[in-house]
Amino acid sequence: MIHNIREAFNELLEDTEWMDDVTRAVAKEKANSMNERIGYPEFLTNPVELSKEYDMLEVWEVERPLQYSKSLQVPLSSGSFQ
What we know:
Layout: H1 2-15, H2 21-33, H3 47-53, H4 65-72
């Protein structure tokens, strides 16, 4: 998919009239040198590494989530958005 986008971009560069040849060449070189980094990080497929990412996360059960969420609300002072 990224390859197709890059190809289409390079084709558009050829038809662009407002760029001079030097600028067009630099734009094409930059487009062709871009890394294709779409997807997800490798640690997501490794259970040990994934656990390390969440070591500091503390999860606890709350009996009454609504009451808990109300305790987190901050009262608005005068002049604040309401």
